[in-house]
Amino acid sequence: xxxxxxxxxxxxxxxxxxxxxxxxxxxxxxxxxxxxxxxxxxxxxxxxxxxxxxxxxxxxxxxxxxxxxxxxxxxxxxxxxxxxxxxxxxxxxxxxxxxxxxxxxxxxxxxxxxxxxxxxxxxxxxxxxxxxxxxxxxxxxxxxxxxxxxxxxxxxxxxxxxxxxxxxxxxxxxxxxxxxxxxxxxxxxxxxxxxxxxxxxxxxxxxxxxxxxxxxxxxxxxxxxxxxxxxxxxxxxxxxxxxxxxxxxxxxxxxxxxxxxxxxxxxxxxxxxxxxxxxxxxxxxxxxxxxxxxxxxxxxxxxxxxxxxxxxxxxxxxxxxxxxxxxxxxxxxxxxxxxxxxxxxxxxxxxxxxxxxxxxxxxxxxxxxxxxxxxxxxxxxxxxxxxxxxxxxxxxxxxxxxxxxxxxxxxxxxxxxxxxxxxxxxxxxxxxxxxxxxxxxxxxxxxxxxxxxxxxxxxxxxxxxxxxxxxxxxxxxxxxxxxxxxxxxxxxxxxxxxxxxxxx
Amino acid sequence: xxxxxxxxxxxxxxxxxxxxxxxxxxxxxxxxxxxxxxxxxxxxxxxxxxxxxxxxxxxxxxxxxxxxxxxxxxxxxxxxxxxxxxxxxxxxxxxxxxxxxxxxxxxxxxxxxxxxxxxxxxxxxxxxxxxxxxxxxxxxxxxxxxxxxxxxxxxxxxxxxxxxxxxxxxxxxxxxxxxxxxxxxxxxxxxxxxxxx
Lengths: 504, 197
Prior knowledge:
Chain A is mostly helical. Chain A is built from 21 helices and 4 strands. A two-stranded antiparallel sheet of chain A has the order 1-2. In chain A, strands 3-4 form a two-stranded antiparallel ribbon. Chain A starts with a helix and ends with a helix. Chain B is mainly α. Chain B has 5 helices and 1 strand. The model of chain B is unreliable at about 100-120 (pLDDT under 50). At the A-B interface, α9, β2, α10, β3 and α18 of A face α1, α2, β1, α4 and α5 of B. β3 of chain A pairs antiparallel with β1 (about 120) of chain B, so a sheet runs across the interface.
């Protein structure tokens, strides 16, 4: 193995490999930062260019786009409340609040260094524990997927702040939106109203862009402050790598990195779910819960570590077993096959040098992402200083492009518009938007897993509690739902008692 | 500008309307479930395609009702409770003021806020106008294509957002043209071309 690694080091540190790593990471960051243009699209666009290259350069270019793009999504999520990629949706919750407080610099650097940490942790997990992680991932049955979904949804109680009932209603509406289209088991139509364009269901990207970006543009139009966005102005203080990778955030970094790595390795999940689950966990265990929802660096740290933590681990089932975990790894698997590298156990035996080259390449990509991001952040911060009469129309134009490019369908742009209008009214009525998105993201996984498990267990509802992982997830979810409600009730009762005794 | 009490009353009113809407939506879903959700009646697929939407419809009715009760009864209860707490705090504050002789000066704080020299103008009609422009933009996309619809709707949006310098309009139009070229020409990503032209 040591010899193979030495050979792989030789492959990585050639000028051609380093050039393609640089190109891929740069393209990834830029594409990721454009709302609606996701990693999958960027990889699909660049894939034909790799056909003429050697396998190592081609794969390093695509991996650079993958990692860079996952990080790039956080930039617009933080600066203009528009997640560049669905994986950065959770980052908007805390990131944009920080921008509104004039702390966009801190948020951007936190996102960058947390992403680098998550990416590196995930890559080391890929190098050291790939076979073991693949085994764990394959033990996940529908019961575990459903329990994971329930655990993810329990965040609604914590993320809704004062408006718990409104949050639950939003969660239900999100879940309802996710049922639009063809049923996952029977393939019967649901809420399509005889429109063929709705048969594929609502696309996540236009839904997300409309809900966050368009609603924010509409809302911001009313708040004109001397021609610029109504954001607090502060001297931007930037975080350093040492400040982020410090004792203060280390617990969040490690925990979120682990969540990202494990969730990423489970086929069918991916970085979106990883970042929401990690946000949930960091909120649950934080000592500064009051900061969450108001702009918490810890929250940004959790989301970004987890979504980048899921990048390399997504490759684990693909490389070791030949099972692509999501659409991106399926395209990457296709790219490997084009270069006569068939994923699976034999890949490590027959082409061990190339596999280790890609793994070492991932380490370089993550380090380079940190360096590129460090210099790029200084420029990105200035985006919020653009005059709002240029910035807001440009956001709308980019949102339209992003929504249309997902499937080349006008219905996606219409979905974005409808969600934007609904989102605006929801903001005005103090309805939290995050639960709506959570329902939309977790709904399909939950419903499918629930019904599959019911078929497997022949209708036994208790079967979800028989398996240790699903049992643990469900118990933690119940605690997450009940404890804050009990705490709130006790606090309210205490207030009531104090008021009553004062009146007497 | 509306004061805090007025906006709170508005929110309560909105909550009441929304809760009624949510309950109505739940009932509407239940009433039309067979029509809107197809189902293959086979035992092995149970719970079927209507299971999740039905559960969600019931949840909407339940939590809509809770929101409704909260906005009616909870508001009255909370107002009374807050009044009690406020009375108690005022009494405490008066006692303290007598001892220290200090007074809170709200106007001073307001003065400090405006000392930055930034005057914010909140105009909700502008939101509705930009919303209308976005809607028009989306509906123009199919007939006239990306380039024309973007220019036709985003230039008025700029005017709406108080753009005064002529070259700012030029910047926006140039950016739209450049974006159109990058996506269609370089990246080969299709954008709506329009059916009229």
